[in-house]
């Protein structure tokens, strides 16, 4: 088993800088008890779930660092550093078993573990970071003096553009640009002839990319092993625990609406004005107005409607009724019907696509002619106010919402909108448009029940 | 749509709707075009990337694993055929001549021949190589051009495409180190870019995404107001784009589009300044004044206390109007199908010819040869009994450009790479056999 042990200081100041950060390269041959199996996994899961919440609330990196530090201390840390390490490794591998089994679960686990690694790495001191890099065999070359001289102006320019002051002491690594996609994408580094020049502090990005790739491959392998033998071998011992753990924290994905939640075409206008979140109201309105939506808009709205309970035949009728007014029924059938059926898993590789979550919608990039995305993020203040006004939001609620938007808490803004338009509080917080819809219907249904005379 | 457009229509080469062939006339023209003009051998040589040779390092299955798609229009309907593949140039030629597609798209190279994909488990059929591609469409700039809109373009607004080519081409070569880049006129209102270095072909989706995001500066859907925001000093790439290309282009744009002479036009610019007091001061002073752009620049760059937070405003305005607007999704995907060069655009009859990025300022979309024109030239040449008559048509120059500026250097690099890879592999095998 390979782990990284940095120097342990005896009688240390307890600053936590001596923590070891394992890379989970291979399954441990430690012996542990069955109770530890479940408990350790749940403790780690708490940390991962907290990270997930923090990210969806748009917390900044520094806040995330604090969150990770607190959560780790509360759930995972032991007085004895060796015991902490043991729990760290065991819990990671147990959760790998739990989350390797489905694509969505793998994706979630991969993202959260990478995030956890990222913030823990940032909290390490320079030496610990260096030894982790050695572990990962990062043989990226430190930029030589001669080459540095020729590009130092550009390096400074790039650094200033991200509010980072580099000085002659800053160490730069010369790295193929393919290895640091995040840094390239956000233009945080200077690139020249295919190489990115990464200052030491940005090395986090490099390291995380590799970590992520390793864990991703490992998850695929674990999945195969699970299906091939472990599931069967362990069906009386570990398998039931793994199943139970898998159901613990996953939020519903709304891809299969409950039967009683089916909606029909004649209700759709009414439902749009009372129970659709703003993003879907906007798309719906634009569709009615222009009799057209571009691809991403069709995906975002179409999958939402599927999640809400609109059946395929009704969906086809709905989109045809709108689109045929602009492009004609024939062109609709030829060019657009296919992709609607595709969304419902009736064409191509028959994947049953899941409606987009808030996180995915917030991170989308609407461009010219697009109406998808999250209005709280993508609309100008003026347009957002107008849209909220149309929903009947005003006064104090409007101010609170705009305040959340300015602080980039888009989902909280949406939650406040829900509260303002329904006149009730929403405890859980919105992180999925279909959740908004479901909560809204629940509210109206219970209101109707109350107004009916009791037997 | 005004007098400006009428003036450009005096050029006799401008397509007018009477001469754009449709329906069965289009099919007839296409038959002749595919029979005599389409450069099959050159396209094959390109997409084979050196694997069509006899060197033992060549992979003869490579070309056959590329997906093509055909759009075939008949009087009654339109059929779209995906997953077409060909073993060699001759098969490709036979198929294109037989089917006469109105559009040919090029997709990715897959793990196996796309026509045989059903024989494999889903996990066995994946895209493994694909050029890095870009698609720029002038209709995405409709909110900043006043001479044309939608699918039209003229010599007044085409410079936006020229600028886009310059900015992107420079970055691809300087920043990313790519050298085998093909720019193609899309036939009506835009340009496509194919980056063909092997390093580019092997990029993963994530890496393509990163490159697309690197270029993504103009952001926002229909409902956001300000599409370009710079919070501090510019990254070297943006600074270079500004100084070498965008700044001067904007100055020209101000005059060709008369941006400061009409209220709705300069109002749009004022909306990009996030300071109410500055905006109202300018608006007041402009009631009768015509030197507005100079005034605006002067005010925003004055460095006065009032304009502290507006230091980047000029750049934001310039970028909003002139920076390339890419269709990001085209670049990010690995199996997005993109129209092949040398196709005929069915809406205009124009050929999708290559553009030399070093001379992109000279490119004139209104004088690109059309299929009707080529056929006329062919007939004229034949009637005077000239030999090699295709080479004496207007298409010859484009094929020549394709070969000399793009294909020949590319093939040379590919052959070198193939040989090196082969030699390395042989050496490794030899080493491992040493007892």
TrEMBL record, chain A:
This protein's GO CC annotations: alpha DNA polymerase:primase complex
Cofactor(s) this protein requires: [4Fe-4S] cluster
RNA-binding listed as a keyword: no
Annotated signal peptide: none
Cofactor: how bound: Binds 1 [4Fe-4S] cluster.
Record's keyword terms, sorted: 4Fe-4S, DNA replication, DNA-binding, Iron, Iron-sulfur, Metal-binding, Primosome
Sequence ranges assigned to domain DNA primase large subunit C-terminal in this UniProt record: 270-437
UniProt-listed CDD domains: PriL_PriS_Eukaryotic
Entry binding sites for [4Fe-4S] cluster: 279, 358, 374, 414
GO molecular function, a single term: metal ion binding
One example of a Gene Ontology biological process annotation: DNA replication initiation
Record-stated family: Belongs to the eukaryotic-type primase large subunit family.
Name of the featured protein: DNA primase large subunit
Organism: Rhynchospora pubera
Phylogenetic placement of the source organism: Eukaryota, Viridiplantae, Streptophyta, Embryophyta, Tracheophyta
Automatic annotation (TrEMBL), chain B:
Record-given protein name: DNA primase
Co-factor(s): Mn(2+); Mg(2+)
Metal-binding as UniProt keyword: yes
Organism classification: Eukaryota, Viridiplantae, Streptophyta, Embryophyta, Tracheophyta
Top-level taxon in the UniProt lineage: Eukaryota
Enzyme category, top tier: transferase
Keywords: DNA replication, DNA-directed RNA polymerase, Metal-binding, Nucleotidyltransferase, Primosome, Transcription, Transferase, Zinc
GO biological process: one example: DNA replication, synthesis of primer
Source organism: Rhynchospora pubera
Its EC number(s): 2.7.7.-
Protein family according to the UniProt entry: Belongs to the eukaryotic-type primase small subunit family.
GO molecular function: DNA-directed RNA polymerase activity; metal ion binding
Keyword Signal: no
InterPro entries: DNA_primase_S, DNA_primase_ssu_euk/arc
Listed GO CC annotations: alpha DNA polymerase:primase complex
């Amino acid at each position: 088993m390979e782990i990284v042990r940095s120097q342990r200081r005896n009688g240390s100041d307890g600053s936590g800088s001596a923590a070891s950060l394992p890379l989970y390269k291979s399954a441990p041959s430690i012996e542990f008890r069955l109770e530890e199996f479940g408990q350790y996994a749940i403790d780690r899961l708490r940390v991962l779930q907290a990270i997930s919440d923090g990210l969806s609330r748009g917390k900044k990196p520094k806040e995330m660092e604090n969150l990770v530090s607190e959560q780790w201390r509360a759930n995972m840390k032991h007085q004895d550093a060796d015991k902490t390490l043991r729990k760290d490794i065991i819990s990671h591998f147990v959760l790998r078993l739990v989350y390797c089994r489905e694509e969505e679960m793998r994706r979630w686990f991969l993202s959260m573990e990478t995030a956890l690694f990222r913030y823990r790495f940032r909290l390490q001191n320079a030496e610990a970071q260096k030894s982790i890099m050695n572990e990962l065999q990062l043989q990226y070359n430190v930029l030589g003096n001669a080459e540095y001289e020729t590009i130092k102006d550009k390096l400074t320019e790039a650094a200033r553009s991200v509010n980072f002051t580099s000085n002659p002491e800053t160490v730069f690594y010369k790295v193929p640009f393919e290895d640091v996609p995040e840094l390239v994408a956000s233009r945080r580094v200077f690139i020249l002839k295919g190489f990115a020049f990464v200052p030491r502090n940005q090395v986090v990005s490099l390291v995380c990319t590799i970590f992520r790739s390793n864990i991703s491959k490992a998850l695929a392998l674990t999945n195969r092993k699970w299906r091939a033998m472990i599931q069967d071998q362990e069906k009386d011992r570990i398998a039931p625990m793994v199943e139970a753990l898998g159901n613990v924290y996953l939020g519903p994905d709304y891809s299969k609406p409950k039967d009683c939640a089916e909606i029909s075409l004649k209700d759709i206008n009414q439902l749009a004005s009372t129970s659709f979140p703003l993003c879907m109201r906007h798309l719906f309105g634009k569709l009615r107005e222009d009799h057209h939506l571009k691809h991403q808009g069709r995906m975002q709205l179409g999958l939402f409607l599927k999640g809400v309970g609109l059946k395929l035949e009704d969906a086809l009728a709905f989109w045809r009724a709108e689109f045929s007014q602009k492009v004609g029924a024939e062109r609709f059938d030829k060019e657009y019907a296919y992709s609607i059926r595709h969304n419902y898993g009736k064409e191509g590789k028959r994947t049953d696509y899941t409606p987009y979550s808030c996180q995915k919608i917030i991170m989308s990039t609407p461009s010219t002619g697009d109406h998808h995305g999250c209005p709280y993020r993508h609309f100008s203040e003026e347009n957002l106010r107008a849209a909220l006004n149309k929903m009947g939001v005003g006064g104090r609620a409007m101010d609170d919402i705009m305040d959340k938007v300015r602080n980039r808490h888009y989902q909280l803004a949406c939650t406040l909108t829900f509260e303002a338009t329904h006149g009730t509080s929403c405890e859980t917080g919105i992180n999925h448009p279909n959740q908004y819809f479901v909560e809204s219907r629940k509210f109206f249904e219970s209101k109707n029940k109350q107004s009916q005379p009791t037997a | 749509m005004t007098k400006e457009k009428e003036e450009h229509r005096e050029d006799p080469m401008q397509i007018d709707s009477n001469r754009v062939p449709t329906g069965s006339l289009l099919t007839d023209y296409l038959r002749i075009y595919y029979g005599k003009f389409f450069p099959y051998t050159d396209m094959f040589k390109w997409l084979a990337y050196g694997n069509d040779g006899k060197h033992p390092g060549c992979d003869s299955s490579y070309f056959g694993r590329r997906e093509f798609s055909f759009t075939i229009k008949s009087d009654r309907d339109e059929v779209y055929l995906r997953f077409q593949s060909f073993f060699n140039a001759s098969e490709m030629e036979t198929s294109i001549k037989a089917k006469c597609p109105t559009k040919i798209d090029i997709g990715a190279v897959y793990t196996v021949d796309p026509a045989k994909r059903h024989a494999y488990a889903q996990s066995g059929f994946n895209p493994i190589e694909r050029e890095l591609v870009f698609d720029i469409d002038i209709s995405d700039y409709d909110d900043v051009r006043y001479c044309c809109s939608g699918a039209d373009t003229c010599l007044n607004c085409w410079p936006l495409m020229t600028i886009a080519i310059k900015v992107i081409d420079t970055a691809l070569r300087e920043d990313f180190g790519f050298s085998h880049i093909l720019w193609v006129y899309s036939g009506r209102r835009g340009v496509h870019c194919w980056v063909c270095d092997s390093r580019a072909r092997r990029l993963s989706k994530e890496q393509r995404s990163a490159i697309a995001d690197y270029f993504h500066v103009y952001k926002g859907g229909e409902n956001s107001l300000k599409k370009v925001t710079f919070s501090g000093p510019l990254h070297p790439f943006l600074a270079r784009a500004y100084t070498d290309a965008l700044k001067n282009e904007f100055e020209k744009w101000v005059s060709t589009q008369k941006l400061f002479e009409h209220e709705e036009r300069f109002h749009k610019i004022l909306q990009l300044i996030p300071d109410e007091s500055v905006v109202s001061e300018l608006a007041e002073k402009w009631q009768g004044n015509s030197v507005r752009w100079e005034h605006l620049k002067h005010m925003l760059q004055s460095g006065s206390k009032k304009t502290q937070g507006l230091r980047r405003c000029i750049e934001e305005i310039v970028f909003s109007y002139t920076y390339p607007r890419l269709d990001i999704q085209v670049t990010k995907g690995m199996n997005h199908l993109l129209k092949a060069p040398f196709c005929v655009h069915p809406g205009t009859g124009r050929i999708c010819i290559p553009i030399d990025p070093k001379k992109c300022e000279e490119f004139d979309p209104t004088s690109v040869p059309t299929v009707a024109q080529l056929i006329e030239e062919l007939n004229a040449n034949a009637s005077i009994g000239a030999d090699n008559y295709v080479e004496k048509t207007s298409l010859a120059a484009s094929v020549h450009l394709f070969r000399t500026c793009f294909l020949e250097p590319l093939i040379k690099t590919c052959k070198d790479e193939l040989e090196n890879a082969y030699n390395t592999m042989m050496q490794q095998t030899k080493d491992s056999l040493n007892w």
